[in-house]
Amino acid sequence: MNDLYLLDGAPWQPPGGLHRALAYGDGLFETMRLEAGQIALLELHLARLTDSAQRLAIQLNEQVLRKEILQLSQQLQSGMIKILLLRSGERRGYAPEPDAGSHRLLQASASLPVWGGSCSAMLCTTPLGSSPALGGMKHLNRLEQVVAAAELQPAGCDTGIMCLNGDPMCGIDANLVLELNGKLLTPFIRHAGVAGVFRRYMMEQLCPAAGVSLQEQPMTRQMLFEADALYLTNAVRGPRQVVRLQAEGQWLEYGAGDQMSQLIDRMRPQLGVEG
Length: 275
Fold this sequence. Notes:
The structure is a single chain. The chain is of the alpha+beta class. It has two domains: 16-109, Aminotransferase class 4, branched-chain amino acid transferase, N-terminal domain (D-amino Acid Aminotransferase, Chain A, domain 1); 118-268, D-amino Acid Aminotransferase, subunit A, domain 2 (D-amino Acid Aminotransferase, Chain A, domain 2, Alpha-Beta Barrel), CATH 3.20.10. The protein contains eight helices and 14 strands. Strands 6, 7, 8, 9, 10, 11, 12, 13 and 14 form a nine-stranded mixed sheet that branches. A three-stranded antiparallel sheet has the order 3-4-5, covered by helices on one side. A two-stranded antiparallel sheet has the order 1-2.
């Protein structure tokens, strides 16, 4: 006899093979910015997805996925494309079924967030948990970010910064870049947080070409408070300048930063950003 489900009191059957993703969040995702039919950082998105799939032992047919992305890109031209890679399986228990397959779910949206710009932020009280096995991956288990995001509206802030063991690690949905004493710094992403595609683009392509170093190192609250400029970066919104930060009962204000301002001027033509 098949399992019986009630969804809001009505009989329901989960789509075939998606039980694990529904029950455990057993999967990965990528969210990409699309302009004029092109995804500028596509190769970095696919590289992260491939690496994470290997770490979790989820099957991925990259060639088929590329064709599906191209198809959606040509239809949509401008907006966002989200990829969900889900491990298939229907048996109970946490252990994956041997040789379990996977499903690709692609979502296209014509909505295109503003690139760059500025925002206010707060230092969230919701902490990140340490997990070396999952650090850096964009997996589906995002409950820490969900809880942290609930802090924003009462505080009147656009977004938030999350900490690991009391030290700033990342934004709720972005990576953290500081300009401090003429240096660009970003926290180590090992035990928590997502190793962002835009962050990798800055570290491996943009900054070396501009003769600038973006150093990955441990970050402290004091460094956050003393920074000359503070940015939150991701592949969809690009670099957002934090102009005000609510932390420990006070508001801190930040400038644009000399090095970041110069780098932002280089980004738009490289990435084909218009919006």
